[in-house]
């Protein structure tokens, strides 16, 4: 299929959509385009094209093989010069608008960074420029947890670049600890791209960030006993089920009548909810 200036196309990638070819270079050779690996890769072709999309995005120097591949399709009709000019004018407006929005965002972020640096509430935290590695974040996490939970022992370990692990036994719940540590996490999963990405905010710019942050709470026998007692207190005698010990509660699969969970699951759920005595 020959592609010319004005050809209407659609790209399935969410940041493109419907568009129009507005520039072309080279001699088209659609007959040479071939699909490899079941259509996952397309090769061949000789021409290259630039496309302007309805959402204001622009893709330049796109190969003929790519446009004739599985992520693109050719639509009916050919846009005239007036429609192409209007599409390019829209793209210019969108670009200018994004530039203005980025400038405003930069000003806002700078103001938030300045406010954090001057806030006496955070005077005991160390400031620096370490957005991803976790070294500065780990140092400040230790300080915050120490202040929030006096006397509680936490293990805050920087395992490798961009990864910090926080472990403790009993004490505060995971939600209580995450409320403190969560703001240091700069990495996240992007479902649109299906990959791990980073989003650095003002807090990371001042007090450090960490790409991967893991929190885990262990339970002592005393804490598990509290959870077991709470389960039996809330559910009566559990239809005659023998009350286990912290050492035996997880053995076997003990069905709890009228519940969607087994006994071990109920105990662990209760253990997660229980905070310090």
Automatic annotation (TrEMBL):
- Keyword annotations of the record: Plasmid
Question: Which species does this protein come from?
Answer: Brevundimonas nasdae
Q: Where does the secretion signal sit in this chain?
A: none
Domain of life of the organism in this record? Bacteria
Question: Per its record, how is this protein called by name?
Answer: Large polyvalent protein associated domain-containing protein
Which Pfam families is this protein grouped with? LPD29 (PF18847), LPD30 (PF18850)
Large polyvalent protein associated domain location = 1-118, 132-220
